[in-house]
Each structure stands twice: as structure tokens, then as C-alpha cells.
Design a protein that fits this description.
Keywords: Hydrolase, Metal-binding. Belongs to the metallo-dependent hydrolases superfamily. TatD-type hydrolase family. InterPro entries: DNase_TatD-rel_CS, Metal_Hydrolase, TatD-like. The structure is a single chain. By secondary structure, the chain is an alpha/beta fold. The protein has a single domain, classed as Metal-dependent hydrolases (TIM Barrel), CATH 3.20.20.140. Helices cover 41% and strands 15% of the residues. It has nine helices and eight strands. The protein has an eight-stranded parallel sheet. Helix 7 links the parallel strand 7 and strand 8. Helix 7 crosses helix 8. The N and C termini lie close together (11 Å). 48% of the residues are buried.
Length: 262
């Protein structure tokens, strides 16, 4: 059994065949697909989608790339949506939140404002955070430390070994996906190979971050097992061992996964 801990299955790229994509993932052995929100406009969408799909679960949050359009009252709405979801077994945490210092033109202070506010929500409701850490590993971790959020996932991790161990020491797990299938992705492959197995969770970020065999094509959650095979080879273990380990890690990172129906 595998868990895709990060999949934007609500994206427009799946409008034509979303149910078929989800069915293919189930047939491939992906028992859970975590669908994170990115803005107020899709809070209801990811919830409804998670309930409609076998194995679907969701997180609620405001993505840093959506902060230019976000309003302060979106945070009030997010709090209400979180409170309304606490009894929902398919709700697993706060996400996707974080900071992005790669995309030009984003207001760093505005990103930080929304990130801090959402970390306070994670702290107040004792929920894990699914964090966007592109070119922002250190300030994202600084926020987690400041607000005492000690569970969750650093999505698409691509930092140094020192940063990786700092996240793990804080209680976070690190998400790896299609990037590790590219032979030129030397740092990501070294991290995926050498970090403790109990630090790692699997993800696709579908429809983005496609593996090498789908280069420039749409990514899908059924790719997790094949990505896992590449990672297992890098680590010198069997795919079944990797699947068991990363599934246990996902449940540790997102404890409410234990509540979601099989």
C-alpha cells in the first residue's frame, strides 16, 4: 500500500478524467491521496472531492503563490472551515502553506503574514502542516519552531542535509516524488538515498513534478509505486519495504489519516 501525501487532484488538468485518474491510483496500490487546498476558492472543492473519491483526504490552507489575491478575511474563513472539519475523518491538516522565494514578484512580507497566521491555526487546533518550502527552507522551519508546530510535511524537499536533519529533528517529514527519478537531480537523489527511511514520505504533486518517464506530461497519483521503485533501488531495499515504511511515516506526519475510511 502507498500514500500520495500531496496531489492537487482538483486541478483543471484533471477535469476530463478525474474519476478515472483516481481509480487508476487505487488499482496501482495507492490507498490514500492527500488533496491540499491552495486558496479560499477551493476549500469546498477539495473537501467535496475527498469525500467523492475512495481513499481521498484533504487539507485546508492558503498557498504562498495565492497570497497576492488573498484577503485577510480569508483567514477568518479558513478558521471557520477548519472548525467545521474537525469532526470530518477525511480532514488531515493545514496545507498547502509556506513561503516561496523562487517565483519573482511575490511580496515576502505578505507571504510571511499568511504563513504566520496559518501556523497559529495549526498550533491552536493541534494540526500538522503541509509546507511549501521552495527556496525557503530556513524561514519556513523558523516559523514552525516559533509557533511550536511539530508535525507535518516539508513538501518537495530540496534543501541541504543540514536543513533536512533540522526539519526531521523538529518532528517534520520530508516529501519526495518525481524529481528523484532524474539522474541529474543529484542532491535530491542523495537526500532520498541517505536520509533515514523514517524521515521520508511519498508524493506526486500531480499534475506537476512529473517523473522522468512523463517529462513535460501530466503527472498522476498512480505514479507513486513506480517512483517508489526508483527510490527503493537508490536505497538498496525492496519496494514492499519502502511502501510499508513510507506509509507508516505518512500516518505519523498526518495522524488523522488513521481516521479516514479505508
Amino acid at each position: 500500500m502507498w500514500i500520495d501525501t500531496h496531489c492537487h487532484l482538483d486541478a483543471a488538468e484533471f477535469d476530463a478524467d478525474r474519476a478515472a485518474v483516481a481509480d487508476a491510483a487505487r488499482r496501482a496500490g495507492v490507498a490514500r491521496v492527500v488533496i491540499p487546498a491552495v486558496a479560499r476558492e477551493n476549500f469546498a472543492t477539495v473537501r467535496e472531492l475527498a469525500h467523492r473519491l475512495d481513499g481521498g483526504v484533504y487539507a485546508l490552507g492558503i498557498h504562498p503563490l495565492y497570497t497576492p489575491q488573498a484577503r485577510d478575511d480569508d483567514l477568518d474563513l479558513l478558521r471557520r472551515e477548519i472548525e467545521a472539519s474537525l469532526d470530518d475523518p477525511r480532514f488531515v491538516g493545514i496545507g498547502e502553506i509556506g513561503l516561496d522565494f523562487f517565483v519573482p514578484g511575490l511580496d515576502a512580507a505578505r507571504q510571511q503574514h499568511f504563513y504566520d497566521a496559518q501556523l497559529r491555526l495549526a498550533r491552536d487546533y493541534d494540526l500538522p502542516a503541509i509546507c511549501h518550502v521552495r527556496k525557503s527552507q530556513d524561514p519556513v522551519l523558523k516559523g514552525l519552531r516559533k509557533y511550536g508546530v511539530r508535525r507535518g510535511i516539508a513538501h518537495a524537499f530540496n534543501g541541504s542535509f543540514q536543513q533536512a536533519h533540522a526539519y526531521v529533528d523538529h518532528g517534520m517529514h520530508l516529501g519526495f516524488g518525481g524529481n528523484l527519478t532524474f539522474e541529474r537531480a543529484l542532491q535530491i537523489r542523495r537526500l532520498a538515498q541517505q536520509l533515514p527511511l523514517d524521515a521520508i514520505v511519498m508524493e506526486t504533486d500531480a499534475p506537476d513534478i512529473s517523473p522522468s518517464w512523463l517529462y513535460r506530461e501530466r503527472n498522476t497519483p498512480d505514479q507513486v509505486p513506480r517512483i517508489g521503485e526508483v527510490l527503493a533501488q537508490l536505497r538498496g531495499i525492496g519496494p514492499d519495504e519502502l511502501a510499508l515504511g513510507t506509509t507508516a511515516n505518512a500516518r505519523a506526519a498526518l495522524p488523522r489519516l488513521a481516521l479516514s475510511p479505508a
